[in-house]
Specification:
about 110 residues; two-stranded parallel ribbon; 5 helices; about 35% helix; DNA-binding
DNA sequence: AAGGTGACCGGCC
DNA sequence: TGGCCGGCCACCT
C-alpha cells in the first residue's frame, strides 16, 4: 500500500499544534483563541481544519479544544462518540450535553512562545 | 486552475 | 448562549 505521508509541516498547521500542546491539564480553549494568537482570528475555521490533521499526532490534545460556546463540536470527529467528553471529565472538567460546564472557568488563553 | 468544504466567530434579532 | 447570516482563509478533488 502506498501510504502517502507527505510533509505537511506548513507553518500554519504546525503553529496550531504548538499552541494546542501548550494547553495545560484540566484546561480548555477555543479555536478562535488559538487563531487569534496565530494572528488570524478570522480564520478560526482553519484552526479546526488543522486539528483534523492533528489526529495523526498524539501530542495534540484536540479534546481540550472546543468552540467559543464551550460545545464539543469536534467530538464527532473522535474515535468514539463520547471519547472527547470522557477525556475532559477525566481531567476534572464537567461536561453536560456535549457542553462544558463553567466553560470560561476552565478556559485557558494560549499565548505565543517567545 | 476553480469550486466546494469546514472541529468557527461575530453581529444582530 | 437562544438562533440565523455573512465572512474569512487554507486544504482537497
Amino acid at each position: 500500500m502506498d501510504l502517502k505521508m507527505p510533509t505537511k509541516n506548513d507553518n500554519f498547521f504546525e503553529r496550531v499544534y504548538e499552541v494546542a500542546r501548550q494547553i495545560p491539564y484540566g484546561k480548555v480553549t477555543s479555536y478562535g483563541a488559538i487563531a487569534k494568537v496565530l494572528g488570524a482570528a478570522r480564520s478560526a475555521r482553519m484552526v479546526g481544519w488543522a486539528m483534523n490533521a492533528s489526529h495523526n499526532l498524539e501530542d495534540v490534545p484536540a479534546h481540550r479544544v472546543v468552540n467559543r460556546s464551550g460545545l464539543l463540536t469536534g467530538k464527532h470527529h473522535f474515535d468514539g462518540t463520547n471519547l472527547m467528553q470522557q477525556l475532559l471529565e477525566s481531567e476534572g472538567i464537567e461536561v453536560r450535553e456535549n457542553q462544558i460546564v463553567d466553560f470560561e472557568k476552565h478556559f485557558w488563553m494560549p499565548e505565543m512562545k517567545t
